[in-house]
Description:
CATH class: Alpha Beta
Radius of gyration: 18 Å
Structural class: alpha/beta
Helix content: 25-40%
Shape: globular
Oligomer: single chain
CATH superfamily: Ribokinase
Number of helices: 11
Distance between the termini: 35 Å
Number of domains: 1
Largest sheet: 6 strands, parallel
Order of helices and strands: EEEHEHEEEHHEHEHEHHEEEHHH
CATH topology: UDP-N-acetylmuramoyl-L-alanine:D-glutamate ligase
Strand content: 15-25%
Amino acid sequence: MARRIAVVGSINMDLVTQATRFPQPGETLLGEDFVTVPGGKGANQAVAAARLGATVTLIGALGRDGFGDQLHAGLRHEGVDLAHLRRLDDQASGTASITVAGGENQIVVVPAANAGLMPAHVEAARDAIARADVVLVQMEIPLETVDATLRLGQQLGVPVIFNPAPARPLPAEWLARARYVTPNQHELAVLLGADPAEDFRTLMRRAPGPVVLTRGGEGAWYREQGEPRHQRGFAVEAIDSTGAGDTFNAALAVFLHEGLAAAVRKACAAAALSVTRLGAQRGMPRAGELDAFLAAAPSPRP
């Protein structure tokens, strides 16, 4: 039976420029390619979960503009339930300007309509959230909407995976309401008000609840109780890391019913596959691709 995933989050059009290197401040640099690609952490996680076989509802907001029309059509094409997607007359749709060089990226996000996603919209989707097996939420939407999602998930007994990106310091009780918090090392340090240079395993022990910590090509570390455990990453040729974290979070939600260790392994594999293609959503694997990738047993990184 397909897992039911509710995603509360942002929807952006990604404006992706590919270059040989990143420009210095004040420098004009000739790029190699430019594409517009659907993105936004909420939409990315919704699409990734749908491609992995889940039934997905997205709670988000778009403007009534050309980008909004394209993004709406793309999400519908991916099979995402848009009953709780709002179209706002007084806002443009969100955008992210992304420069890709050497397999890494730099991103500037303009939230626009995403800033109009309010707690009332989450409450209006109460029934969809109550029916979900897992809820995903990130931080490209207003903080009060993130809080409302965490509170509603806790109230309804639905596990919430909280991806705290872009990170900022938060009250410990917010983190405690999530079933899992999924930062990278820098984000976890920001959340806890700690030194980013501090050992990440120490930071994980200090967190007020279970943590699944992503570390790029190294894989992921996870802790519910006791000592953090490591899932090694999978060796691939990276083209574009945009959307890898979103693919990881979606896969974690889709496979969580198999147990945390199995879900983290599949999430690492899905994220590895996603970086082999340009563009956040373009690179997201389908269930069959993930199954074939895992069956081939690529060597984990040492």
